[in-house]
Amino acid sequence: MGRGSLDGIGSETGKFVVFTMDIPWKVTRDLLGAPPMMTIMVESVDEKWLDEKITLMPECETVIGIGGGQAVDAAKYMSWKRGIRLISVPTILSVDAFVTPAAGVRRNHMVTYVGKSTPDPLVIDFDVIRTAPPQLNIAGIGDLLSAHTGTFDWEHANARGRSEYPFSMDDINSARKIVNDLEDYLEEIRANTDTGLQAIVEGYMKMNTICIPAGHARVEEGSEHYLFYELEERLKRPFIHGNIVGLGIYIMSRLQNNEPDKITRMMDRAGLIYRPANLGLKREDVKVSLLNLREFVERHKELWYTVLNDTLISESWVDKILDNLQFES
């Protein structure tokens, strides 16, 4: 981790294949120090698309994922399937895929986590990351601040005897400390300084020390993510992960009556884009999702128990919450 940490990494890896996208590849290809055997431009993380690409890959020693969450997840998937070394080179911090071992793939428009692959090494090059639009790096705090609502949902489920895993108050307190510690770095994150970028990366790593031993991400994924999943499934369009999770945090912290003003101030200080107008969402899009969420989580049995399973979301409540947000006209 540092400035220039990517330089020459390709000369140390043997035969390698790169999974990337056009913009991150233009930024990084001359820094690797050696050419890849093949460069695969990631168009999708649909599992069928990824399996097709496996058949095209030559025999190699290493797969390098360069880019955002999709490129890194594609590389993780290939590393797992082929049993080869993985190097992760995030060029934006909008999602925590580069520090999580499972690959997030799409099955029928739903996120599914499969496999296990750990980068060796993980390369965090601040100069490369700062070539991305600042808002894409700021979006990285979405999967950290989501612990604010995620921990609440786990406590809520446990109180009703519905926790899917052995309950750990220590894990909850550790995740909440990660959120609270970010208070000191919000302006640095907004400015994309080395200190701010490092705070996001280290926050992800600290979250891993909770989630990997536990075998689940219950502390940082709950109702705030489920709003995102419903919108993506119904509208059949992608979102910048951290931003749409931010919208979920805004709304679900209010449904939970869980210090909504505090977490909203944190998102605003960091400059996180979470308002529907900036996400290309109309008022009706969000309203329909909120009124549909109970049915959505009950239909998707794989989703963990949260406030959505037993809290009434009335049309009047939805209108009140949405009145304070801005929407695409």
Structure characterization notes:
With 329 residues, the chain is α/β, with parallel strands linked by helices. It has 15 helices and six strands. It has helices spanning 22-28, 47-54, 69-82, 126-129, 134-138, 142-145, 147-159, 169-181, 186-191, 194-214, 223-235, 241-255, 260-270, 283-299, 315-322; strands at residues 16-20, 38-41, 62-67, 85-90, 103-107, 110-114. The strands form two sheets. A four-stranded parallel β-sheet has the order 2-1-3-4, sandwiched between helices. Strands 5-6 form a two-stranded antiparallel ribbon. The longest helix is centred in the middle third of the chain and has 21 residues, at 194-214. The relative contact order is 0.11.
Give the topology.
Layout: E1 16-20, H1 22-28, E2 38-41, H2 47-54, E3 62-67, H3 69-82, E4 85-90, E5 103-107, E6 110-114, H4 126-129, H5 134-138, H6 142-145, H7 147-159, H8 169-181, H9 186-191, H10 194-214, H11 223-235, H12 241-255, H13 260-270, H14 283-299, H15 315-322
Parallel strand pairs: 1-2, 1-3, 3-4
Antiparallel strand pairs: 5-6
Helix pairs in contact: 7-8, 8-10, 11-12, 11-14, 12-13, 14-15
Briefly characterize the structure.
The protein is α/β, with parallel strands linked by helices and 329 residues long. It contains 15 helices and six strands. The chain has two domains: 9-129, 3-Layer(aba) Sandwich (Rossmann fold), CATH 3.40.50; 134-322, Up-down Bundle (Dehydroquinate synthase-like, alpha domain).
Number of strands: 6
Topology-level CATH name of the largest domain = Dehydroquinate synthase-like, alpha domain
Mean pLDDT: 94
CATH superfamily of the largest domain: Dehydroquinate synthase-like - alpha domain
Oligomer: single chain
| Radius of gyration computed on alpha carbons | 20 Å
**Percent of residues in beta strands:** 5-15%
Helix-strand sequence = EHEHEHEEEHHHHHHHHHHHH
How many helical stretches?
A: 15
Structurally, the number of domains stands at 2
**Top-tier CATH class of the largest domain:** Mainly Alpha
Sheet/helix structural class:
alpha/beta
Largest sheet: 4 strands, parallel
Shape: globular
| Cα end-to-end separation | 42 Å
